[in-house]
Specification:
Elements (H helix, E strand, L loop, with lengths): L1 H15 L5 E2 L2 E2 L4 E4 L3 E6 L6 E3 L4 E2 L1 H20 L4 E11 L9 E10 L3 E11 L5 E14 L8
Antiparallel strand pairs: 1-2, 3-4, 4-8, 5-6, 7-10, 8-9, 9-10
């Protein structure tokens, strides 16, 4: 429990500095994070500069991929109970419906399995529609490399 407490505070520091999500070196930002014992949920409030289709107001698909990728990496750290370098090997994102810029995006990821060096993660993103119902807008599955410190090498 103490390790989870430390990881929670370390991850909160990352989110507080808004460096959780990056697109081409540009900070996309996350405003909230909620940690459970086995999963993590992040929230992104859309901004005008994240819109990919000005006509419809839909967010750029890269924003959705970025938030799923970053939240998945954090889910691996939650499962391990420590901050560690995690590299994306493969991330499959299924865009189910267009993401509007009118409501916050909630992304929940859970690390399902860890081997010596690889983690398997599933996640989904949803937002409220005009009627206030939560609608799943995407889901993803990913494989992540756990970069562990080797003898004499910092990881």
């Amino acid at each position: 429990a103490n390790d989870l407490f430390q990881v929670t505070h370390a991850l909160a520091a990352v989110v507080d500095t808004q460096k959780l999500l990056q697109r081409g070196g540009e900070i996309v930002g996350v405003c909230r994070v909620r940690l459970e014992l086995k999963d993590i949920t992040t929230e992104l409030v859309p901004r005008a500069e994240l819109v990919g289709d000005p006509e419809s107001g839909a967010l750029h698909g890269g924003v959705l991929s970025s938030i799923l990728d970053s939240t998945s990496s954090l889910a691996v750290m939650v499962k391990l109970g420590k901050l560690i370098r995690v590299t994306t090997l493969d991330l499959r994102v299924h865009h189910l419906v267009p993401v509007t810029s009118q409501a916050a995006l909630q992304t929940r990821c859970i690390c399902q399995q860890i081997t010596d060096d690889v983690a398997l993660v599933r996640g989904s993103t949803w937002q409220k529609n005009a009627e206030g119902e939560e609608i799943e807008v995407s889901n993803a599955s990913g494989t992540f490399l756990i970069v562990r410190a080797r003898s004499g090498v910092q990881g």
